[in-house]
Design a protein that fits this description.
Helices cover 32% and strands 12% of the residues. It is an alpha+beta fold. It is globular and about 45 Å long. The structure holds heme C.
């Protein structure tokens, strides 16, 4: 998953799978349940296609939601908050808040990522169907 021989079609895809941007900058996270666990990647929890699912990490079962773009931005009557937009997806990734202003569960790390890398990551999420 983190092999240097792997090539990615975009910087966003690279970040999703490796938590390292094309410039070599690691995308770090802080706080949360998995604080100090070392390298985590979006794909580890949300799956290679972004469809989510459950993973066992450090003995805990993590239920990660579907973060394909239609799932994030579609109107879902069961959702407790408005659909995501570009701006609120960014806030979910960096600040761990949903579009209703509620904090996400602590099993979702809070990410520190440069604005241009975040743009690329969000562009990549838009390709997930
Ligand atoms: C350790 C597991 C884990 C990792 C790693 C992780 N997430 Fe999450 N993520 C979660 C969980 C669990 C939730 C749901 C939190 C909740 O329900 O409050 C979540 C929620 C989200 C949401 C909000 C979805 C929604 O329906 O509200 C987005 C967007 C998201 N993650 C994107 C990312 C991105 C992008 C990355 C990589 C930079 C990432 N996540 C890495 C576990 C993870």
């Amino acid at each position: 998953m983190t092999g240097t021989s792997t090539t990615y079609a975009s910087n966003g895809e690279r970040i999703y799978f490796t938590a390292v941007s094309s410039s070599g900058t690691p995308i770090s996270y802080s706080g949360g349940f998995f604080s100090g666990m070392g390298r985590l990647t979006c794909a580890m929890c949300h799956g290679p296609g972004g469809h989510g699912g459950s993973t066992t990490m450090m003995g805990a079962i993590v239920q990660a939601p579907d973060i394909t773009w239609p799932a994030l931005t579609g109107a879902d009557p069961d959702m407790e908050h408005p659909p995501y937009t570009d701006q609120t997806v960014r806030a979910a990734i960096t600040d761990g808040v949903d579009p209703g202003g509620q904090p996400l569960d602590q099993t979702m790390p809070r990410w520190t990522i440069a604005p241009n890398d975040l743009d690329d990551l969000v562009s990549y999420l838009k390709t997930l169907q």
